[in-house]
Amino acid sequence: NEVLGKNIVLGAGGDLCGVLDVGYSEDCEPCPDDETLMVPIANHVAVALRGVRLDAEAALARDYLERLIEHTDALVLGVDQSWRVTVFNQAVARLTGIAHNKIVGSHVRDWLSPVERSRLITAIATVLAGTPSATVDVELATGGGEGVHTVWKVAGVKAGTKTEAVIAIGQDVSRIRSL
């Protein structure tokens, strides 16, 4: 018995996505134009498959990076151009006693005391204005009300030449200062 059908390689963007296997029943005679008609369909399927794979890879990378930031012992704070907190990781939440969901989306000034607010906001404003980075000492109040000395390195997140956000990486230096 002769196998009737066509195999069309599915490729998009230089990636091999699979093979489209089109088979015919024994009582069906293939049309000479079938392959010509199947190639555009195969190309669309290949592009769709590549898009799905790229989306899945991007989501995996994004989720992995979010977990890295969330679970690091370093204090991590992200602020967008409208001064809204976009990242407030577990280390900052543990230190301050403020839940992540209470801060993300709020204005950066909302969780700092007035004195410390001006220090951090000045550093963030400097970086948003185009300075590559700034370092600032900030005393944070813990959930128990004690003051904790922290040092923050504030850096811009660029989109081309424009700073679109700021990331601040901090460290509790209270023990070092007490020596």
Structure, explained:
The strands form two sheets. This protein has a five-stranded antiparallel beta sheet with strand order 4-3-7-6-5. The chain has helices at 34-71, 90-96, 100-103, 114-128, 174-178; strands at residues 5-12, 15-23, 75-80, 85-88, 133-141, 147-159, 162-172. It is α+β, with helices and mostly antiparallel strands and 179 residues long. The mean pLDDT is 87.
Task: Tell me the Rg in angstroms.
Answer: 27 Å
- Helices and strands, in order, run as EEHEEHHHEEEH
How widely separated are the two ends? Answer: 88 Å
What is the overall number of helices?
Answer: 5
Uncertain spans, ≥5 residues at pLDDT below 50? none
What is the strand content? 25-35%
User: How much helical structure, as a percent, in the residues?
Assistant: 25-40%
Q: Let me know the number of strands.
A: 7
Shape: elongated
Characterize this entry briefly.
This protein is of the alpha+beta class and 179 residues long. The chain contains 5 helices and 7 strands. The mean pLDDT is 87.
Topology diagram in text:
Blueprint: E1 5-12, E2 15-23, H1 34-71, E3 75-80, E4 85-88, H2 90-96, H3 100-103, H4 114-128, E5 133-141, E6 147-159, E7 162-172, H5 174-178
Antiparallel strand pairs: 1-2, 3-4, 3-7, 5-6, 6-7
Keywords:
single chain; 179 residues; alpha+beta; 39% helix
